[in-house]
Amino acid sequence: MTEFITVAKTDELKVGAPPIVVDIENTWVAIYNIDGEYFAIEDTCTHDGNPLAEGTVEGNIVTCPRHGAKFDIKTGKCLSIYADVRTYQVRVVGDEIQVGRRK
Ligand code: FES
Question: Which residues surround ligand 1 with Cβ inside 6 Å?
């Protein structure tokens, strides 16, 4: 079963804002607001570990600032030759953004 933990209020993460990065059980997770929907991915580039939250976002694609790997924030898929990033479930309860913690 997935347990959800509150990571932010909805008004703290507006469309186009930089992602919020939180530590979930010793893993950095970046939460993005893409056109009003929230998505969470592990904040570690699968090439060489750079934080993806430092990258630029166009649509739902984030580009790692270090060597340019691109990832789909909605699916975690890498559009370059590297491994996909892990995704997390996200839900909104009232005005709270919650991320699923894997058990
Ligand atoms: S560390 Fe992200 S592309 Fe190399």
Answer: 45, 47-48, 50, 64, 66-69
- The CATH number covering residue 81 comes to 2.102.10.10
pLDDT band at 102 (very low <50, low <70, confident <90, very high): low
CA 43 to centroid of ligand 1, rounded, Å: 12
Average pLDDT for residues 51-79, to the nearest whole number? 98
Output the average pLDDT for the chain: 96
Give residue 34's domain range: 3-101
Beta-strand runs (E) in the chain: 3-9, 20-24, 27-34, 37-42, 56-58, 61-63, 70-72, 87-88, 90-93, 96-101
Ligand 1 centroid, distance to 4 Cα (angstroms): 29
